[in-house]
Design a protein that fits this description.
heterodimer; A: alpha+beta; Immunoglobulin-like; Cytochrome Bc1 Complex, Chain D, domain 2; 12 strands; B: Cytochrome C Oxidase, Chain A; two-stranded antiparallel sheet; 2 strands
Chain lengths: ~325, ~650
């Protein structure tokens, strides 16, 4: 029986170790959480091996021959055994609880020199506000793509404009619900450069499956260069900036051949804006409820782009869309 | 002869079969489907006029307000349906001071298939009504899962739009939980518990009949949400989180109102079980001689009675926010979104045990009988049920570790969540120890019971991951959770429901099911289930969120495998249904006790006599004395009962 148990344990351990169960760990928090994950996995593999070993052995050894009419041994219990399988799991789960509690405290530790980024969820887009970066007009920088410097602890303050969303970057392991009316928070210290998906994990309506964005982790120098570029873009506007803005903010919901975007939540703009004039395009951005494309629902597209973009940005976006959809030609 | 007594009594009942049948137009006023036929449209017109008339009188616009109409319809029309069918007749007569018909038992027992479509007060008829109805909803909800898996077989959108998809998984879960798992256990319990404790029926037979008829109402309300114009079915998940639920199209009301009927049915049945178990046990049946299935239903019923009002309240609050424009969940006017989750999970976590404890009971019965051994550690098995019952109320916020509630609650909730693994572990280890030195017969019920133990262990262990706050922060709301709940509710609850149905099929129908088809059903289910749900752990941890109609392309391959396996799993149900239908009609006649079990339900004929026992049984010992020569659970006057056999050395084993 021990042999069966060990065999099952070895097979399980191979499955547990050689299949990459978790995505890359790209934050300090991910390392802490992964350690808890592996400790729990070791305990679970041992417990399952014991259970599977005993069952497999019992099924092999105690199977009744056909036509057998006898009973098994009248064993009613065994106090010692029952104490053991009450106490051992109690000790194991207490250990897991204590270790998890410590790991939780570590992963949420907030050093005084952290940055703050505000995350706002709405149906069906994320926006990120950097309170320490000021742009044209004295307002903080706001983007649709998250850009952060590496090796700095960031406190994300999470809010929602409508229903509940949940902000999750699998490679960072951290997740936090965005709830209207309260500000929730989560702490991440990215430790790997690269681009990682941002996923909404709380059902938020029609566009929930497509409410994805991305987080880019840059070196501090690149991050500062990016900040300056954003400040310049907000100041200058123009069609080229419009294209970048479109790809960041609009492409996850709208098809536009010129920008190569494929979102299917909202209308295909190659069709819906074909030959439209600048006023109509501007209205469609700042007041999407004014006219709903046939076959689409009101209330799906956020209504606050007029406040989010600076005037030069809006002008740039309209100019770009005018060119891209052929309206500018007339 | 006992049988003759029996037939004589049946004939007597048939002769004194209630008042003389009504003739002519008077047939329309008698309880039954004819009365339903005219009461139903009449009540619909009444409800509609009530709303439109009141709105006109009060000057509200528009007169045709669908939300208000849905609420009014889903209250008044079902009540009219129940009244038409005769669910309230006796009580209305009594309340209005008219002479009630003396109880002639004319609504007891089933002589033709038509008796299953009446308000029948026989717990055995009600048990079968429950099981068959719940299997209908199981098939409907399963088909919805098939549609979902078809859509998810490839990334991108293929067959349905996102709104339809959200509706599919919401209705799938609601039907599976409220119309299948919970009531399927109530149905099996209904049939078996009075027999097991030596009672002639449940304590409140009329209430029992009424509880059953609330069930199809709840199911039809939920399913007909697909017919609601603009928006269709409710699509905010079975958890129906606010504010999404408040903002959604009118179909969402069908969930809120459907749950009320299902919940009322649950509560009434649970009260019935509690009173029956406490007051109607046969002489000698002390609590420590009750079969573990009875213990399990005792614990479950307590959970149902205490917890179900919370889900009713949570859905009423959403309904008020929508229809009466209250602000319970509107943060701009002082409402609290997270409070909804606390109220909801205060029911819905205990609900997980409501869906699990009766399964524990079934597994204990089946494993003991087919291992030919006493259940190991009987008292600790019973006490661990009670421990789960109490601890079950202290873990609800583990569904909310990332919800934004105050952080400190996470720690005590994590501790209780992990500690509840201890009584659950005791049960698993005791089942394994029951197999030890037994003589195992792997008939279909035993296959499903052993399959349950191993699958439930996986579901329990993935629960440890989710109970640990740091791991949960990563894994919550991903496919890992989908895998976890299906290992618990499919590998756990559904496997035990199948075990129970096969185990008591001979008792309920008087015929044997086909053993070969039963085994094919088990292996198809077991393999299909694991290939469908095990990979979900991986895609979840890798970053695939739950409740999505579309997903990142890198999850495409595994989702394709999952979808193919799920179709196999769906097909296994066809084998089950075929076996049930054909065996019920043409299976070999079942003996009274095909499993040589000691518990009371097997000491009477299959199916049992109309009032279960011709004599009041005298319980003389434990229900599980296998291996002790001559040991009996009960004595029935004038009838032989099964006894334990002496254990023989196992020299004939193998080869």
């Amino acid at each position: 029986m021990t042999l069966v148990g060990v065999a099952v344990g070895v097979v399980l351990a191979i499955v547990a170790v050689f299949i990459p169960w978790l995505p890359d760990a790209a934050s300090e928090q991910a390392d802490i959480i992964d350690n808890v994950y592996w400790v729990v996995t070791i305990i679970c593999v041992v417990v399952f091996a014991v259970v599977a070993g005993v069952s497999a052995y019992a099924v092999y050894k105690f199977r009744a021959p056909p036509g057998d009419m006898d009973d098994g041994s009248p064993i009613h219990g065994h106090t010692g055994l029952e104490i053991v399988w009450t106490l051992v799991p109690t000790i194991l789960v207490t250990g897991i609880a204590v270790y998890s509690g410590v790991a939780l405290a570590q992963s949420e530790e907030l050093p005084p020199d952290h940055r703050v980024i505000e995350v706002t969820g709405e149906q069906f887009a994320w926006t990120f506000t950097y309170p320490d970066v000021e742009v044209e007009g004295g307002r903080p920088l706001t983007t649709g793509e998250l850009v952060v410097p590496i090796d700095q602890t960031i406190r994300f303050e999470v809010e929602s404009k409508d229903v509940i969303h949940s902000f999750w970057v699998p490679e960072w392991r951290m997740k936090q619900d965005a709830v209207q009316g309260i500000t929730t928070n989560t702490t991440v210290k990215p430790t790997q450069l690269g681009t990682f998906p941002i996923v909404c994990t709380e059902l938020c309506g029609l566009g929930h499956a497509l409410m994805r964005s991305q987080a880019r982790v840059l070196s501090l120098a690149d991050y500062e260069a990016w900040v300056e570029e954003q400040q310049r873009l907000a100041r200058e506007g123009g069609a080229i900036q419009g294209e970048e803005l479109f790809a960041q903010q609009c492409g996850s919901c709208h098809v536009l051949a010129d920008a190569g975007t494929l979102g299917e939540v909202g209308p295909n703009l190659d069709e819906a804006l074909q030959g439209a004039d600048a006023d109509f395009i501007l209205q469609s951005i700042v007041d999407p409820s004014a006219e709903i494309a046939p076959g689409y629902q009101d209330g799906v597209m956020p209504t606050n782009y007029g406040e989010m973009f600076t005037d030069p940005q809006l002008e740039g976006l309209v100019e770009y869309l005018l060119n891209a959809t052929g309206g500018g030609a007339r | 002869m006992v049988v003759d007594v029996h037939e004589a009594r049946e004939a007597e009942h048939a002769a004194a079969h209630g008042p003389p049948p009504r003739r002519g137009l008077r047939r329309l006023t008698g309880a039954g489907w004819l009365r339903v036929l005219w009461v139903l449209p009449l009540s619909w017109v009444f409800a509609t006029l009530l709303v439109v008339g009141l709105r006109a009188a009060l000057g509200y616009e528009p007169l045709w307000e669908l939300q208000v109409l849905i609420v009014t319809w889903t209250v008044i029309v079902p009540l009219a349906f129940l009244a038409g069918l005769g669910g309230f007749d006796y009580w209305l007569y009594w309340i209005s001071g008219r002479p009630t018909r003396p109880e002639d038992h004319s609504s007891h027992g089933a002589r033709t298939w038509k008796d299953y479509f009446r308000v029948n007060t026989d717990h055995k008829v009600i048990g079968i009504q429950y099981v068959v109805t719940t299997i209908f909803f199981f098939v409907a909800a399963g088909l919805m899962a098939m549609f979902m898996r078809a859509e998810l077989a490839q990334p991108g959108m293929q067959y349905v739009d996102t709104n339809t998809f959200n509706g599919l998984f919401s209705v799938h879960a609601s039907l599976m939980i409220f119309l299948f798992i919970i009531p399927a256990f109530a149905g099996l319990g209904n049939y078996v518990i009075p027999l097991m404790i030596g009672a002639p029926d449940m304590a409140f037979p009329r209430l029992n009949a009424l509880s059953f008829w609330l069930l199809p109402i709840a199911g039809l309300i939920m399913m007909s949400s697909y017919l609601v114009p603009e928006g269709g079915a409710f699509a905010a998940g079975w958890t129906n989180y606010v504010p999404l639920a408040v903002n959604q199209a009118d179909g969402n009301l069908m969930f809120q109102m459907g749950v009320q009927w299902a919940g009322a049915s649950s509560i009434m049945t649970a009260l019935n079980f509690l009173v029956t178990i406490i007051t109607m046990r046969a002489p000698g049946m002390s609590f420590w001689r009750m079969p573990l299935l009875v213990w399990a239903n005792f614990a479950t019923s307590t959970l149902v009675v205490l917890a179900t009002p919370f889900v009713a309240g949570s859905q009423f609050f959403i309904m008020f926010d929508r229809v009466l424009h209250t602000n319970f969940f509107n943060p701009e006017l002082g409402g609290d979104i997270v409070a909804y989750q606390h109220i909801f999970w205060f029911y819905s976590h205990p609900a997980v045990y409501i869906m699990m404890l009766p399964g524990f009971g079934i597994a204990s019965e089946v494993i003991s009988v087919f291992a030919r051994k006493p259940i190991f550690g009987y008292r600790l098995m019973a006490l661990s049920l009670m421990a789960i019952l109490i601890l079950g109320f202290s873990v609800w916020a583990h569904h909310m570790f990332v919800s934004g509630m105050q952080p400190w609650i996470r720690i005590p909730m994590m501790v209780t969540t992990l500690v509840i693994a201890v009584p659950t572990g005791i049960k698993v280890f005791s089942w394994l120890a029951t197999l030890w030195e037994g003589r195992l017969h792997f008939k279909t019920p035993m296959l499903f019971a052993s399959g349950f133990v191993s699958m439930f262990v996986i579901g329990g262990l993935s629960g440890i991951y989710l109970g640990s706050v740091p791991v949960d922060i990563h894994a919550s709301d991903t496919y890992f959770v989908v895998a976890h709940i299906h290992y618990v509710l499919f590998g756990g609850s559904l496997f035990t429901i199948f075990a129970g149905i096969y185990y008591w099929f001979p008792k309920m129908t008087g015929r044997m099911y086909d053993e070969r088809l039963g085994k094919i059903h088990f292996w198809l289910t077991f393999v299909g289930f694991n290939v469908t749900f095990f990979p979900m752990h991986w895609v979840g941890l890798q970053g695939m969120p739950r409740r999505v109609a579309d997903y990142a392309p890198e999850f495409g391959n595994w989702n394709f495998v999952i979808s193919i396996a799920s179709f196999g799993l769906g097909a296994s149900t066809v084998v089950f249904l075929y076996n049930m239908v054909v065996s019920w009609r043409r299976g070999p006649i079942a003996p009274a006790n095909p499993w040589r079990a000691l518990t009371l339900e097997w000491q009477v004929s299959s199916p049992p006599p109309i009032f279960n026992f011709d004599e009041v049984p005298q319980v003389v010992g434990s229900p599980y004395e296998y291996g002790t020569r001559g040991a009996r659970h009960a004595v029935l006057n004038g009838k032989p009962t099964e006894t334990g056999k002496a254990p023989e050395p196992m020299e004939v084993m193998h080869h």
